[in-house]
Design goal:
Elements lengths: L17 H26 L10 H55 L6 H24 L1 E2 L2 E2 L7 E4 L2 E7 L6 H4 E7 L9 E2 L2 E2 L6 H4 L7 H52 L3 H26 L1 H5 L5
Antiparallel strand pairs: 1-2, 3-4, 4-5, 6-7
Helix pairs in contact: 1-7, 2-3, 2-6
């Protein structure tokens, strides 16, 4: 006696068709799986909703939020870099103007100039000092003045500070950097005193004092000090720029890796899913054929009634 452990039934019945019921159930399950496969292929996602994989979905959403934060932090850092570039460009222009002013003062210090020469030299000197102040007042980023000590916030009477949010952490020490820029208006770098050009070259009497002091030399000293001061500010901005550039590189790497982790969880493997879809399509066609055959079983009983 041979027995088989199967979900089978004995006999043929007209009122019930277990073969058709089983075939229909299998076909429905296959169609459900086929629909899920189509959903994955059409959306490109292997987790199309939280019900598919609650834990995986939760992790993926956290990664996605982090990616969005990194994207904005990258934009913030790029904006910060642009701000520094604009300030550095203006400082470079001012540095060139200071070089011209140094040349004018050196010329005026020479005893071969006439009074008319000195007046002409002083006029150009004064215009350059005024232009430095104008550049300092006009240099801005997104409406924020950069070089006249009236920027985002002040840390001193002649220094503006700008804060860049370059991370996704709420802890400022981990996600913010502050950039301080000293103002470079003429009055802030020692070129004016009480609104007037310091050591003016306006006349012979100001160039040579009663004691015989060449006032042009005092102007030259002031310009040289301003050159050193502006160069120091430029160097500081350069160090800020290097730091922001390093931060941008790190943000890019972090963003790429975070996005990759999200994709590994959420994105469908098309090669694998297409193989699965092909298999399910074949099973669906087979199931339809078998359901059709199972539906014909009761008709076979009619031959027994003849």
């Amino acid at each position: 006696l041979i027995t088989e452990d199967k979900q089978m039934y004995n006999g043929l019945f007209i009122n019930s068709n277990q073969s058709a019921v089983l075939a229909e159930n299998n076909l429905q399950n296959t169609n459900n799986s086929l629909g899920e496969s189509l959903n994955r292929l059409s959306s490109g996602l292997q987790i199309t909703g939280a019900w598919v994989d609650p834990a995986g979905y939760e992790i993926a959403q956290g990664l996605n939020a982090t990616t969005m934060g990194i994207t904005q932090a990258t934009a913030n850092a790029n904006n910060g870099n642009s701000l520094i570039n604009i300030a550095s460009g203006a400082l470079s222009t001012i540095q060139g103007m200071l070089g011209t002013m140094q040349s004018l003062a050196t010329n005026a210090a020479n005893g071969t100039n006439s009074n008319a020469n000195l007046q002409a030299l002083n006029s150009e000197f004064s215009q350059l000092a005024s232009e430095i102040t104008q550049i300092a007042d006009a240099t801005n980023f997104n409406g924020l003045n950069l070089l006249n000590a009236s920027g985002s916030s002040k840390v001193a009477s002649n220094v503006s500070a700008f804060t860049f949010q370059i991370g996704t952490d709420a802890v400022t020490s981990n996600s913010q950097i502050s950039v301080s820029i000293q103002g470079v208006a003429a009055s802030l770098i020692g070129l004016t005193s009480s609104g007037k050009i310091k050591s003016s070259l306006a006349s012979v009497s100001l160039v040579y004092s009663a004691s015989g002091t060449n006032s042009a030399l005092v102007a030259l000293s002031a310009v040289q000090a301003a050159v050193t001061q502006v160069a120091g500010i430029s160097g500081q901005l350069g160090s800020y720029q290097n730091r922001v550039t390093q931060i941008l590189g790190n943000l890019q790497t972090e963003g790429t890796n975070t996005q990759a982790a999200y994709n590994n969880i959420m994105d469908v493997n098309f090669a694998s899913e297409m193989s699965n879809f092909t298999l399910l399509s074949t099973l669906a066609q087979s199931g339809e054929a078998m359901l059709s055959q199972a539906s014909m079983v009761p008709q076979g009983l009619l031959t027994l009634l003849k």
